[in-house]
Amino acid sequence: MERMLSGIKPTGRVTLGNYIGAIKPFISYQDEYEMFIFIANLHSMTITQEPKELRKNTRDLIAIYLAAGLDPEKVTLFLQSDVHEHAQLGWYMTCLSGMGELYRMTQYKDKAAKGESIGTGIYVYPTLMAADILLYNPQYVPVGEDQKQHVELTRDLADRFNRRYSETFVLPEPLVAKVGGRIMDLQNPTKKMSKSSSDGKGCIYILDDVNLSKKKIMSAVTDSEGSIRFDPENKPGISNLLEIYASLSGRTIPELEQRYVGAGYGTFKKDLAEIVGQYLTDIQTRYKEVTQGSYIDDILKEGARKATPVARKTLAKVERKIGITIYK
Ligand code: TYM
């Protein structure tokens, strides 16, 4: 079996964008690949976290993974902070990287452009992400569009290491869903739907009240043309809703365009609101079950137990090659 790895940060509440761009694809791959999925809680420290909230968000995120259908029998699910090798390889990756290439990362550039004071953690974030990936030598990294550049940097660092010290790392490939790789804000469809979005109206949260989520779909920004067709440039609102619909229903966008020829936006949105509502209802019902007792803790401990030897083996190999290990 080929190997796959991915992670999500426990910052803020999980959005429909995270679900469509990442969690849903993970579930669809779990039968075909050996999967490692982790909660990137070290990455969440790049912005100030209220400890109580971080704990809650971390637990919620794991519960959502499980409630959405990730099967811990098939997938190794763990906390990044439980496997200390991430931080250690992260340091070597930082030392392997150049200021210029980190400076070019759009996530950093966007934050820097806002002129706010930003922590060093945001700047070196991609090197820790490279370590997360390379410790497990996966062939594929399923991510949303916004993380593709980080996986490409990981490939560059892996290649640099291999050339400098000899073949060690598999060069991982980013896997971005063709439909749903970048779900946009419902009120501002030229902007990514995001956990940190300040206007809650444009963002659907997985644990949101179901009726409120339906209302958010019904009041999503569209255009005045009145026809349901996919044209992200001229019709970003409708195109985004079509992507959400296609991804959740398993239908293709052309099929949906065909189905809604002559129909108004109201009908289309109402159908989509029902689908979104059904997904949320199902996940929220399961969420209540998986948060009972010590289920989550048991899964995370077992996940760390399985992930640690894999990570340790890679780190030991790296440390031998670079000359850090001196013991015979
Ligand atoms: P994070 O936590 O921002 O997002 C988690 C995943 O959700 C995807 N995503 C979206 N997909 C579609 N539409 C959206 N609006 C949307 N918003 C978010 C992201 O692309 C991502 O796949 N750096 C990562 C976490 C990470 C990681 C890793 C991922 C740390 N180490 C190693 C893969 C491998 C992040 O901040 O994701």
TrEMBL record:
SUPFAM superfamilies, A to Z: Nucleotidylyl transferase
Alphabetized InterPro entries for the sequence: aa-tRNA-synth_I_CS, aa-tRNA-synth_Ic, Rossmann-like_a/b/a_fold, Trp-tRNA-ligase, Trp-tRNA-ligase_bac-type, Trp-tRNA_synthetase
UniProt entry tagged with the keyword Nucleotide-binding: yes
EC number(s) stated in the UniProt entry for this protein: 6.1.1.2
Subunit structure as annotated in this protein's UniProt entry: Homodimer.
NCBIfam families: trpS
Record-given protein name: Tryptophan--tRNA ligase
Annotated source species: Candidatus Fimiplasma intestinipullorum
